[in-house]
């Protein structure tokens, strides 16, 4: 499972609860993309980054 390299956001687990209150397993996946990112020395590196980190400007695309 992919995890954000910046904020380490990953999948969350819990229960799906029906109207009759029966429970089954559920997984919420974070919106993680494979992106080429500029590193500190100016080189490009491929990383998994969530879309909230991309939108907030925590990383810069190469």
From TrEMBL:
Protein's GO biological process: translation
Superkingdom per UniProt: Bacteria
Entry GO terms, CC: ribonucleoprotein complex; ribosome
Molecular function as annotated in GO: structural constituent of ribosome
InterPro entries: Bacterial_rp_bL28, Ribosomal_bL28, Ribosomal_bL28/bL31-like_sf, Ribosomal_bL28_bact-type, Ribosomal_bL28_sf
Entry annotated with the keyword Ribosomal protein: yes
Family in the record: Belongs to the bacterial ribosomal protein bL28 family.
Record protein name field: Large ribosomal subunit protein bL28
Organism: Blautia hydrogenotrophica (strain DSM 10507 / JCM 14656 / S5a33) (Ruminococcus hydrogenotrophicus)
């Amino acid at each position: 499972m992919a995890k954000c390299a910046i904020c380490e956001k990953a999948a969350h687990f819990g229960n799906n609860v029906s109207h009759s209150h029966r429970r089954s397993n559920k997984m919420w996946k974070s919106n993680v993309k494979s992106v080429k990112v500029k590193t500190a020395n100016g080189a490009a590196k491929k990383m998994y980054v969530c879309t909230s980190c991309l939108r907030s400007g925590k990383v810069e695309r190469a």
